[in-house]
């Protein structure tokens, strides 16, 4: 027997769509960024048409007013961690919001199963935390020309290829703990050689031995004929 939970009617509602609630936007430390839900056609194929009330037609004016209410463009510090982006419409809305963060300076995107944000540009971002995601390369990071503090712990970055793209940024500290590249030979020397302005790696300041360039293997250009 199917029993609907008390919260079932609010399954696809955003917090600001729920009437008579006391929670204000500035009280949310880690807001959800999901849309009001999938299309009615998708709900029909899921067999979930019972979960939402009949949606009214939203005018262009109402859409614009709601967009202005979000005000992502003026956001300077934002935590969008632990979003649990399980559906495609949630991922698309998440990316839509990231594209609007033109003034954000501190951004946390921890544990969101992110794989590629290379199409996103964060022109003013100075501090970015993308720990516990699925990045495999530095090429998949967003464009962050003003970055100073970058945390990439617990991703799946295999090699240091592409790290030199951060060379022309004011990056001071970088965290790569619990990535496969951490076990690369002369790991710290390679990172500091690629990023000469870097001061701290994995919470440890630059040490005297980190100043030396990474050792390169010598292969003689000689052919022996037997």
Automatic annotation (TrEMBL):
InterPro entries referenced in this protein's UniProt entry, alphabetically: Leu-rich_rpt, LRR_dom_sf
Coiled-coil residues: none
Keyword terms: Leucine-rich repeat, Repeat
Name of the protein in question: TILB protein
Source organism of the structure: Asarcornis scutulata
């Amino acid at each position: 027997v199917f029993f609907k939970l008390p919260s079932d009617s609010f399954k696809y509602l955003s917090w600001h769509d729920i009437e008579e609630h006391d929670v204000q936007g500035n009280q949310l430390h880690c807001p959800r960024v999901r849309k009001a839900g999938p299309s009615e056609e998708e709900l029909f194929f899921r067999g979930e048409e019972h979960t939402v009330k009949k949606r009214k037609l939203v005018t262009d004016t109402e859409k614009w007013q709601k967009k202005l209410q979000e005000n992502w463009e003026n956001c300077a510090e934002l935590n969008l961690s632990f979003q649990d982006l399980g559906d495609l419409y949630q991922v698309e809305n998440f990316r839509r919001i990231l594209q609007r963060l033109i003034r954000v300076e501190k951004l946390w995107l921890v544990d969101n199963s992110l794989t590629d944000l290379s199409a996103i540009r964060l022109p003013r971002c100075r501090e970015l935390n993308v720990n516990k995601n699925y990045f495999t390369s530095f090429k998949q990071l967003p464009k962050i020309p003003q970055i100073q503090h970058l945390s990439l712990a617990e991703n799946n970055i295999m090699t240091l290829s592409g790290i030199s793209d951060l060379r022309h940024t004011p990056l001071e500290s970088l965290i790569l703990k619990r990535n496969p590249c951490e076990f690369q030979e002369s790991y710290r020397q390679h990172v500091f050689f690629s990023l000469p302005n870097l001061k701290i790696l994995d919470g440890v300041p630059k040490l005297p031995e980190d100043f030396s360039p990474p050792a390169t293997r010598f292969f003689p250009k000689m052919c022996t004929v037997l």
